[in-house]
Amino acid sequence: MKNRVLLVLVIVAAATAWGLAFLTVAPNRLLTGTAIPLAQISTPWRDALLLPAVILVLGVLLPQRMRTHAVVGVTAALLLSGLVWLAGAEAARLAKTASATSRTALGGGFWLLALIAWLAAGDAIERLRLGPVASVVAHLCVLLPVVVLLFAGELQHLSLLKEYSIRKDVFFVALARHVQIVVAALLPTLLVGIPLGIVLFRHTKSQASVFAVLNVIQTVPSIALFGLLMVPLALLATALPGLRQLGVGGIGMAPAVIALILYSLLPIVRSTVAGLAQVPRPVVDAAVGMGLTQGQVLRKVELPIALPVFLSGVRIAGVQAVGLAVVAALIGAGGLGALVFQGLASGALDLVLLGVIPVVALAVVVDAVFRILENLRSTPRG
Amino acid sequence: MISFEHVGKAFAGNVAIDDLSLAIDEGEFIVVIGPSGSGKSTVLRMLNRLVEHDHGRIVFAGEEIRRFKPEVLRRRMGYAIQSIGLFPHWTVEQNIATVPDLLAWPRPRVRDRVTELMELLKLAPETYRRRYPHQLSGGQQQRVGVARALAGDPAVLLMDEPFGSLDPVTRDSLQQEIARIHEASGKTILFVTHDIDEALRLATRIVLLDRGRVVQVGTPREVLAHPTSKFVSDFVGGSDIGIKLLGLDTVAAYVRHGETAAGEPIAMTASLREALSMFVVRQVDRLAVADDEGRTVGAITLSDVVKPRP
Amino acid sequence: MNADRPARLRLIALARDPLAWFTALLLLFVFGMDELRPLFAAAFPTLDRPIFTQDSFLALTVAHIELVALSSAAAVIIGVGAGIFVTRSWGREFRPPVERMVAIGQTFPPVAVLAVAAPLLGFGQAPALIALALYGLLPIVQNTVAGIESVPVSAREAAEGLGMGAARILRRIELPLAMPVIIAGIRTSVIINIGTAALASTVGAKSLGTPIIVGLAGFNTAYIIQGAVVVGLLAIVVDLAFERLLRFVDRWHDSPASRRTPVLAAHG
Hints:
The complex is a heterotrimer. Chain B is α/β, with parallel strands linked by helices.
């Protein structure tokens, strides 16, 4: 067999198309829907998707040349957008006949097939051994048609987008609040964490104890830390009415932001220390020997060389904060987590997804942006 | 221009330098040599105050070095080290320009200085100017390191085993380079090494250290010909001392003008050591000598070589 | 006189051991929460019920541990297996897609996995178990691969040269050398799972998160504190225990993995 990864993907895809619901149709947003497998979808042009499927099967068997990988990559990307288009088109077709409250949702089959198509495209890009920039561009090109379909309104009859159009206002408020919580937590963490990291790097003796404390904080489950912070903040707000006017209290933004700061400190402080620690000794020695002042050594030599490692810490802190801010909704901080828990409470998967998908997208974007920055800033050493 | 007066230094109670006294004149090429742990790097690092001395006085340009701000002092002394310590995030040009930038030289002057130094160290400026250190070979990196140390036109050049990690061929060409620079610029150089051949080749005076104490100071010839102790004679070559002495002189001083000999002539600039080798290889006791243009000018005999200097 | 000295020294060592202290505190809260009633009653005079009593804290703790243990066991078996598979010569082809899935998976907040699993799989323990096991896989796969990759080529070649077969090299050389890194991955995974299991009460599974969620819904701060303290202590005790285990497994190493790779991943 020539390409076993693609073979496995094709087999799983075939089983999924056969056995799992591509879409589900429910009379309203709260009821469980009936499954519609791929075979029962009656949108014209459905069978056009067989063409990329056949090409992928050929991709398994053909000799593995660069040309084969390129064809497989493009085909998998086309299959991905084809699946998305088909789901949207079928939902639109069903909407013509069904009642206004009825919902056509994406089924497990759709999600799995989309994942497989995406993995196949990614694997082909990997096998093409492109440069770092070209690889990023190629990965973006795979997702681009899906985004185009989304913004072109082709998907508006899917239940997820119906949910969105009902809750548009709430959604954007929640999204803005989510970003606000994350930024409000990360900025002070950077202001405290970077100097703390620099001080700890110089005073090696205190490193162990500070990291022990930060590690214990990191270990405490988020919901527990949020809960524990409520009490002192509530007391503080009662004692100092001025604080309460500023919005500080046992519930809301204040405990959420404080908890997020506490969690973010560990990755940021540790990456600052680790970044400085990997600056080669001779480089610092030469810098001092040539007459750079201590401040100049830090600013011109140590910090720039430490930057890539430091940025990876900011990336981890950022991705973590985006996720943790979801839990903050439980203590009334708002954000996308409010949609998630509201959806869980009422059993509405669409609402849960309306909260979860932008959270994941946000985390992926933060992750990607900082990874690109890290690569830009790192000077390869040969 | 530099003097150490009864200088002492201990690290955590262990004596590293014990009662060091040494006066260095302008233009000297001082090589500090000794086995590892003898304190030779400490001598350099005390001079630019990377290490502060405990006792005694160190005087530079007429002043005790503690009266300078450390940064100001260091900017007047070039510094090159074995592991080079190039800044990996800066280009060759930025690296070389470090001290001129610190001294706030105007842009065009910095640029000219970088070009001049790159040419001096045989790094084609337009090819290498914008490269990063990781794109250079070890020898090229050390050339940049030396250029960087020279950039601020320092009064003194401090070099701590600068060629220690290079392969023999590269080391040889960099030794030639630094000897040439010393000759052309007349700069005072303090050079630390553990390689006696490097010391004999470069030094105007050798300072031999053992466990923090100076055991002998002298020209290469003095150290070889009149070692003051068994330690010195063992360290500088043991049974090879005679051969090493021959390495200090060139054929030119021993030429019998007007005489001739058979076979391929030897160059006037070759060392007596090379001449001896050629006597042995050719199994002769007489060699023709040629000048720079390859004209035979005379001959040299085996018995002349082994006799004391005429 | 001399005979009891080691015992006394051991006692002193125990008294200085944070693991012993946190374990004692945890046991105190799990078994003695009822005895603390006067304390909570005094601290929160306005509450009718100052102690969470729907379930005993022992039962909640056992349920919580059960949730974490089952899901983590599944994650360890699948995760280490997958890590070994993609580092074999016949599985190497699968390494890039597996690594990409792990990288993308880790940008998912664990709570998101839980929230999506519940409506799809129904409420209760099952979706929580599956979500925890799935999410817990990621650090384990990642560290298993990293651990096996970090085995020096020279060690592997020496083993081959001594005539060891592939299976024996895996068992005797690769896995033991990779063990500290693998265990560090399991530690990360288990700590995340303890946190996420606390959130599982939002999807109807019983856990130490239950008093917190009930307290949040009913404005009963005492419940919140009780749940938070116990689950926080549980996480700290488990983490310290893993640190101890790592120090033991890593005793041949000069810079212990316990210090090199502490927990670094998103919470529930």
